[in-house]
């Protein structure tokens, strides 16, 4: 029984890092805050959302989100406030506009360009094989004799 309790406490403990003193009294606002927190990146832990991070900065961001919601901001206004303060990097799923759109499209564009260059190079090289590099009929017959044994 003790083992089961230990295993369950180890599994459940890192699930949410939200402290009891951070939780809002209004369940609807708390649900909105949790939803927003799952989409915001902890700047210390990198690819972990602020809802699951134990970092001090993540706690500050969680409190900031809750303060903005209590002040009457909409979800978009609260996220925009944090993005204005910390940059687009704070979003776990960045918006596909402006420079991020260029970054998203650059990888596939480079892959297609590289494949096109490779295909062009291989076709050009195989089509331009000089006549002198090919075997004459006598050389081909001699090679067949050697290979046949």
Provide structural commentary:
The chain is 61% helix and 0% strand. The chain is mainly alpha-helical. It folds into two domains: 2-90, Helicase, Ruva Protein, domain 3; 98-148, no CATH class. The longest helix is centred in the C-terminal third of the chain and has 30 residues, at 98-127. The chain is elongated and about 95 Å long. The model has no long low-confidence stretch (mean pLDDT 83).
Quick structural summary:
By secondary structure, the protein is mainly α. Helix content is 61%, strand content 0%.
Topology summary:
Elements: H1 2-12, H2 27-37, H3 56-70, H4 75-86, H5 98-127, H6 137-148
Helix pairs in contact: 2-3, 3-4
In CATH terms, what is the fold-level topology of the largest domain? Helicase, Ruva Protein, domain 3
CATH superfamily of the largest domain: Cytochrome C biogenesis protein
Shape: elongated
Integer count of domains: 2
* Helix-and-strand structural type: mainly alpha
Strand percentage: under 5%
Q: Report the end-to-end length measured between terminal Cα atoms.
A: 78 Å
Which tags fit this structure?
Helicase, Ruva Protein, domain 3, 6 helices, 149 residues, 2 domains, mainly alpha, single chain
């Amino acid at each position: 029984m003790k083992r089961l309790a230990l295993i369950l406490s180890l599994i459940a403990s890192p699930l949410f890092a939200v402290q009891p003193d951070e939780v809002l009294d209004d369940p609807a606002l708390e649900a909105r805050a949790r939803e927003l927190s799952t989409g915001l990146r902890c700047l210390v832990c990198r690819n972990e959302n602020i809802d699951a991070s134990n970092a001090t900065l993540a706690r500050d961001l969680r409190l900031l989100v809750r303060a903005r919601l209590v002040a009457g901001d909409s979800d978009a206004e609260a996220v925009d406030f944090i993005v204005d303060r910390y940059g687009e990097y704070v979003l776990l799923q960045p918006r596909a506009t402006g420079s991020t759109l260029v970054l998203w499209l650059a990888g596939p564009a480079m892959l297609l360009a590289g494949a096109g260059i490779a295909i062009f190079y291989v076709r050009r090289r195989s089509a331009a094989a000089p006549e002198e590099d090919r075997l004459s009929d006598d050389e081909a017959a001699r090679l067949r004799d050697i290979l046949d044994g």
